[in-house]
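Hey team,

Sharing the SAM-dependent methyltransferase run so nobody has to redo it. Sequence (271 residues) first:
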Amino acid sequence: MSDPSTTPGHTAQQKIDTSVPHSARIWNYWLGGKDNYPVDEQAGDAYTAVFPGIVTIARSSRAFLRRNITHLVAEAGIRQFLDIGTGLPTADNTHEVAQRIAPESRIVYVDNDPMVLAHARALLYSTPEGATAYIDSDVLDPDTVLEAAARTLDFDRPIALILSNILGHIPDYDQARSVAARLVDALPSGSYLSINDGSRGIDPEFDRAQDGYNESGAAPYILRTVDQITAFFDGLELVEPGVVPVTQWRPEEGADAPELIGEHGGLARKP
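Structure output:
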């Protein structure tokens, strides 16, 4: 196994603040992980008391990503991934799914949280044939992300860009679209964009719970309509079945009937 490479940035020197809840650690808690603190558990429990379905959304989101990556590697032949806003490592990280199928796959993770950085250094190991790298940067600085990613990825060959539950952290919709477009513009023809985000207007209880969370003073996460999420793919070729609840995106054969949840996602190819 080869060591992951890490590009240090401004968060590398920051201390982990355990006095306030953090979205990545709360998400980890909902996924059943152990990389969180009591303050995160308290915030997560407070949310689930209002909307228990958030645990289903978190786990369904992870399963959607796994199926996306499996399709990209096994069917689309993709061997390079740029995963922005990766969050804390948990089961079936991008490189694990991709390299199980194609050990030569190369993955770059991007996040700007010091706790994620510490875990990435310790856990994100690549196969000898492939590579993993971690960039300490912010999705709001796409040019820096792209420059650093080019040290590991070949931008003359197709790349899958993964934006999983990250665009909702950009409150301004026009800015979120601009960031996504800038990243896609840098990718060559034959590349793919994978997005999943919380969707508004599907489950009123989820809408109310998220609005209450955003009003609590925590860093907001903005739910967007299905049409708004779909618009992130403008100019690209959506893979069937298009932008759908993540439970309904190519569910595994024999799985229970997928439920309708307030988390939509899709995958699209750049012509």
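The first strand starts at residue 5 and ends at 7.

Ping me if you want the raw files.
A.
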